[in-house]
Structures are given as C-alpha cells and as structure tokens.
Specification:
Elements (H helix, E strand, L loop, with lengths): L25 H15 L3 E5 L5 H8 L4 E5 L3 H13 L6 E4 L3 H6 L10 E6 L6 H14 L4 E12 L9 E2 L2 E9 L2 E8 L4
Parallel strand pairs: 1-2, 1-4, 2-3, 4-5
Antiparallel strand pairs: 5-8, 6-7, 7-8
C-alpha cells in the first residue's frame, strides 16, 4: 500500500498482519479522494474502524486540518502509530483506542467535541451489526456529530445479504460508487422541511 497523493505521495504504508483487517485498496482510496477533493483541505476527518490508518493518512496528506483515527484492535493501533511515525506525522491527528461506540458516545455528553466535516467508516464486511449500529448512531446524532455540509462515507461489499439502508435517522444516501467487490455509499444530513 502507498499514499496516493499530496504531501506524502507514493510513500509506503503498512497493513496489520493477518486477515482480520482488510485495508481499503489504493484504487478505491483514489476514487474516494477524487470525489472528496474539494472538501478535504482543512477538514475535520474521522476514520472509524481505522485499521491501518490508510484513509486518514491519505486525508492528512491531502491537507485535512485534523484526523481522528478510531480503532480498538491492538495490532491495528500499533500499525497506525508506525505508519504515522514512518511518515514523520506528529501533529494534526488523534488516535482514539476506545473503539467506535465509545467515541460516538462523547457526542451525547454534556460537552460534545467539535463536529466532523467528513466521516469514513469501514467495519469488517461481515460485521453487519457494526454497520447498522454505527450508521444508526450517526443518524441519531445528526448535526451534533456532522457539520451541515458534512458527508459520511461507508465502504461496504457491493453485493451483501444485508445491504445497508438509504436512510438512517437524519442521514440519507446521496450516492453509491461501485468498484469491483467494494462500494462506497455517501450520506448527508437531511435538509429540514
């Protein structure tokens, strides 16, 4: 794997050993960031189920203002740290090792953090409940977690026995891009009536 473009272009990044993490392919990351290009500069970006951190690192390379890597698997956390260190990235990010449900609970508290402009999530393809729970929580939190023009992007299997829905609370799907066995679904906040 490598960083596709930006400050760290063509620099290699590692993936955690074993089959439990499925990194987003270089080609799919390139497609994703071609779509997101006008929104990345200065953005607050969340990389949920971050795995190797490749998506969040790509966002930093392309000028994101801040990236939150949310991951609770120790091998993946070690890989994210090693990738950031190898690229000499020392600022502009946070690694949240509590996992996605705990990170999202912060937004329900008395002092929620600043909302994100872009949220990317990529649970293991077989983790149907992780997709449903995370998207349901994001849709419930709505404007507390996402800026008004913000976007949630979900990487998922193109064909699944349990496809993800078009609507989760205040989030509605606006676009689907398919590439090989993978797909990217883009969600935005519903406009008030």
């Amino acid at each position: 794997m490598r960083v596709i473009a930006g400050t760290y272009r063509s620099r290699p990044i590692a993936a955690p050993a074993g089959a439990s993490t499925r990194p987003t392919s270089d080609r799919l990351r390139e497609t994703l960031f071609n779509v997101l290009a006008p929104k990345v500069e200065g953005a607050r970006f969340a990389d949920l189920f971050a795995g190797s951190g490749a998506v969040g690192i790509e966002a930093l390379s392309r000028g994101a203002g801040h990236v939150s890597f949310v991951e609770n698997a120790n091998p993946a956390i070690a890989t994210i740290r090693a990738n950031l260190a190898s690229l000499k990235i020392v600022t502009g990010f946070r690694i949240d090792t509590r996992g996605v449900p705990a990170a999202l609970r912060d937004f329900s508290g008395p002092r929620p953090p600043e909302p994100w402009d872009l949220i990317f999530l990529d649970p293991p393809y077989h983790a149907d409940q992780a997709y449903a729970n995370t998207l349901t929580n994001l849709g419930r939190l709505g404007a507390a977690i996402l800026t008004p023009s913000g976007t949630v992007i979900v990487e998922h299997q193109r064909k699944s026995l349990r496809p993800i829905a078009d609507i989760y609370g205040s989030l509605h799907r606006t676009r689907v891009l398919e590439q090989g066995d993978a797909a990217l679904s883009f969600y935005q906040l519903s406009k008030p009536a």
